[in-house]
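This is your field. Pick holes in the following sequence-structure pair:
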Amino acid sequence: MHPTVVAQFPDPHDPGPGAPPGGVEPAVRVRTTRDLVAAVPALLGYRPQESLTVVCVTGAGTVGLVARVGLDDLAAERAASAGSHPPAALGVRDRLVPAVRGVGTVTLVAVVHSARDRRAVRRVVAPVLDGLDAVCDVDPWHVAPTGYRGLDCEDPSCCPPDGHPTAGLEHGAVNAALVVAGRTVAPSWEEAHRIVRAPEALRSRAARAASRAARAAADRREDAGGGTGTDAVHGPPGSRESRRRTAGLDLWHDLLRHAAVALRAEPGGTPELGPARLGRLAAALADVAVRDAVLLSLIPGADDVARRTAARRPASPVGVARDESAGAGGAESGDVEVATARAIARVVDPRVAVAPDPGTAAAARAVLEQVVAHVPRRWHAPPLTLLGVLAWWQGDGGLAMRRTSAAIEADAQHRLAVLLRGVLAAAVPPGWVRARGVG
């Protein structure tokens, strides 16, 4: 079972500030409801099974929000709420209705992909659809292996008992246009998000580079004082430790730019980033200060605080990094703390929160997934945790939980991963979603 996934798709004509030049996706014209039903797998990136997907159409005629939830999740929630008065937590309907309203939805196409009987499916999704119907016009559909039809249609001349052939959905003009636009479709949710291991020769090169970088860092710490004392661990500004961390952040930015260029040239492709550089980045991310700096670098306007975080490890008042004790830093450290809190507020605080930039998020995901694909498991926890944070920030709770669980499997003591797992278990949405009324 996967939690509700809420994915914001940018207007293809207006990707928003900070989008990479040339990164604007071509518009795909959808002229009928059937076209929109056909587009669901491409919008999600995989072929949904036993799930309800809602596609919001705004007053401007664009897709404003796409959300998916598993039918088993809905059935379990319905059973749990029957014995809880009031319910112990907000349900799918309570979180989804304000979000649909918040994006200015005029029409909503609800698509149930299921091999189950149509009437049985209708009973499972009824609470959600009834709640959405109070907000906008809802057009429900059922896509089964045997065919597709209106979920509520009882007219056999309109919807045959076995539905219309699904080939009409899979091979239409809209799907062809979405593929051209770079929207690839995986056979399942699991396959869409599987990180494929790199060939063994490349993994060996990455592992050697990571080990060399880790040994060099350990030698520098030993030279600085045998690994004891605050400055030996954290390094004052200008120290060798500070320069090493800053170099790690610079390597991240270099790989991020490389990935962005590659993805503009081949949307949906896998950038070739070099196993040695990926190995060095894995070793750099094992340092909490570098990991936090990388996370901050993804937040619009936080480049300066990211560099200051890498240069000198600040205390963290907001839970971004609590893996190590904070170093001394006096007023400068306090300034970094304040700047860090303001940056993180743009992720978690609905009053000032922003959604992640699509181009930057895609490049960051490509780099971090390539790190995981190339290095041994002992280096996996930091990049997987960052992937989990990024997925959560984008509103993809299912993917965030998958990446976070994998990070904890690699390192059960990785505190940011444990913290994120708690956020996900509590179904706390990112700030930009909550600003639209979710949660």
